[in-house]
Amino acid sequence: MTNSLSPQTRAAIINFDPLQPHALSVTDFCRSIKISRSVFYKIRGRAVHESTAALHPRSRAPKTPARKYDAGVINELVKIRKQLKADGWDYGPRSIYYEASQQEKFPGGKVPSVATIARLLSSVGHVDAAPRKRPKSSYIPFVRATVMSLWQLDAFEYRLAGGEVVTVYQLLDDASRFDVGTVAYSRAENSADAKDVLERAITAYGPPKEVLSDNSLAFNQLRAGRIGSVEIFLASKGTMPISGLPGKPTTQGKNERSHQTLLRFLDAHQPATLEQLQGRISRFRDHYNNRRPHQSLDHATPRTAWDLLEHTPATEPIPLSVLEAKASYYTQVRARRQGDLDRAALTISKTGEILPDENAQDRAADQSVVEITRANRQVYYQGFHVSLPTPYADRQFYRTITDDAFLLTDPATGEIVFSFPLPMVALNVRGRYVASYSVQGVQAAYSTKQWDLKRDHYEDQFAKRHEEQPDVMATR
Q1: Start and end of every Integrase catalytic domain (predicted)?
Q2: Cα–Cα dist 312/217, whole Å
C-alpha cells in the first residue's frame, strides 16, 4: 500500500498537524485520503529518520540478490553425482552437497545449498523420477539412547559375478548406526557363521546389552522352545538375545534399510569371488562408518555418533536358566494355544459351515488350519467374510472359535495374531463382507498403519455409541 502512494500524498501526511485549530483527527485525516493509521505513522516515522527520503517508496530489490551459478558449477555437481552413482553410493542432493564441501576448491568458491543443488540438477535433467513419499518427519523413530545398548543382526544372500551365491551378515549398533561387523561367508545362513560374526564384533568392541534379530533358527531359537549355540555364546558374554515378532520385519528396520545401501555398493562393483567381496565390504564399512553422513544422525557420521554417545555395554554373564525360562515360556504358550484348538466349543469351516461339536474333538489337525492368500485375504465366521490386513497374505494360521472369542494363532510360536470378541459387532458391513478394522474389540499383531488408523476411528465411533445409546450397545 505504502509503495503506491504519490509523493504529494506522502508530503501531505508528513506536513499534517493535528494540533492546529479546527484540524481533523488522525483517524478522519487517514479516512479522507484513504489510508490506514499504520501507514500514516509508518511514513511519519520515516520522515523523522530519513527526512525527504520518505517522499519516495523504498526499493523492493532483495538485500541479498539470488545468486546465479554458471555452467562450471552445474558441470561440477553433475560430475560429483555421476561419480557417487558409479561408486554405488547415495547420489541425492544431500550426498552431493557433502562431497562438494569436502573439496579444497569448488568452482565459484561457494557450494550451493542442498535445495539449490536439487534445482540446478533438475534444470539439466539429472534427477531420477521417484513416487511421492511420506515425509520423514511423519515417522516416529524408535532408537536406543546409548551405544552398545542394542545391536541388530541380519543376513541376506548375494550372487557374485561368477554365479556363486554367498551369505552376507550385517551387524549394526542401534543408536549410532555404526557397522560393527559385516562379513560374507560361502555357506547358507547358519548358526556357526552367525556366531563367528558376533564373536569378531565383540572381540573388537565389547559385548552389547542385547542383540536383536529375526526368528531365523540361525540367530534365535528361543521362540521355538530351544536354546541354540548363538544364544549360549551371547549369554556367556552378558548379552541377551531377543527377536522381533514373526512377520514384523520393520522391527529390524534399520538393518533392512542398511541392506539397500550395501547392495547398491556391491552391485556397482560386481565382485566375482568371495575374496573380492570381502575387500569391497571392507571399503564399504570404512566409507559408511567414517565418511558418509547419516540423515538419521543429523548428518553426522556413524563414527562421530559412536564416539560422542554414552556407551552402556554388558557387564555380567547371563545365567542359562534365564534363557531356559524364556524357551519354556514360549513352549507353554504354544502348547496352550494348541490345546485351545481341541477345547473349542464351536468350529467354523472356511466356507462358513458350522461343524458339530462331536466332530470337533475327532477332526484332523489340518481341519483347523486356515491358509490366507494374497487374492483372498479373508477368514469366515458364520457366513461372514472378515477381511485381514495385507501382512497376513500367503501364510497359514490356526483358527479357534470359543464361546467368547474368534482367534487366529501363529502355528510356529503359538501367539494369538488376530482376534475379536464374540458376539461379533461391526460397523462397516457390506452384505456378507465385514471390514476387520470396524469390528468392536478387534486386535491384530500384523497390521498396517492405515489399518490401525481406521481401527482407532471405529473405536471412537463405538465409544460415542456407548455414551449415546448405552442400553442398545450393552445388548449387542
Answers
A1: 137-310
A2: 28
421 neighbors 404 (Cβ within 8 angstroms): yes
Question: Do the Cβ atoms of 134 and 193 come closer than 8 Å?
Answer: no
| CB distance 144 to 150 below 8 Å | yes
HSE of 162 in the Cβ direction (CA atoms, 13 Å)? 10
| Longest distance between any two alpha carbons in the chain, whole Å | 111
Region of 40 (left: φ > 0; alpha: ψ -120 to 50; beta: rest) is alpha
Stretch 429-439: mean pLDDT: 89
The shares of helix, strand and coil residues in the chain, as percent rounded to the nearest 5, are 45, 15, 40
For residue 324, what are the CA distances in angstroms to 131, 198, 236, 367, 369? 48, 21, 14, 33, 29
Per mean pLDDT, which range of 176-180, 222-226, 358-362, 379-383 is the poorest? Answer: 358-362
Q: Give the pairing type, strands 150-159 and 210-213.
A: parallel
Under 8 Å between Cβ of 348 and 354: yes
**Alpha carbons 184 and 170: distance in angstroms, whole number:** 9
pLDDT in tens, 403-433: 788 888 887 777 888 999 988 888 888 888 8
CB contact burial 278-305 (16+ within 10 A = b; e otherwise): eebbeebbeebbeebbbeebeebbbbbb
Give strand pairing partners of 153.
171
Question: How far apart (Å, rounded) are the C-alpha atoms in residues 200 and 183?
Answer: 10
The torsion angles phi and psi of 34, rounded to 5 degrees, stand at 60, 55
Residue type, 178: F
Q: What residues have CB less than 8 Å from 255, skipping those under 6 apart?
A: 152, 153, 154, 170, 172
Instruction: Give 4's contacts (C-beta < 8 A, 6+ positions apart).
Output: none
Tens of pLDDT, residues 135-170: 666 556 677 889 999 999 988 899 998 889 999 999
Higher model confidence: residue 354 or residue 171?
171
* Closest of 254, 237, 230, 231 to residue 139, by C-alpha: 254
- Confidence band of 95 (pLDDT split at 50, 70, 90): confident
Residue 55 grid coordinates: 517522499
Q: If DSSP codes are grouped into helix, strand and coil, which group holds residue 318?
A: coil
